[in-house]
Design brief:
Strand content: 15-25%
Helix content: 40-55%
Largest sheet: 2 strands, antiparallel
Distance between the termini: 33 Å
Number of strands: 4
Strand order of the largest sheet: 1-2
Number of domains: 2
Order of helices and strands: EEHHEHEH
Amino acid sequence: ATIDIQVPIPALIGNVTAGIVEDPEEIRSLLVAQVTGMVRWRESVEFMAANGIDTIVELGAGKVLTGMAKRINRDLTGMAVGTPDEIEAFLKTL
């Protein structure tokens, strides 16, 4: 089955490239690359911070990426949202 990937709004930061990715076909190939190869998490977090992102939200079970991001850049605010109740509570803060 194919999945229709649209141009993301806001822009997507690819953790394989550690940069902005907007082309749907590039997103598709990078999704495969991030599952099968190495990612550039440190560089991705540094890129986000250098471009004005000060808050990150980790979706899914656990808080591993949030913790890693905070160790990379202590100025980042981070939260992990893993359950339906947590997602609902988070959405109310937007």
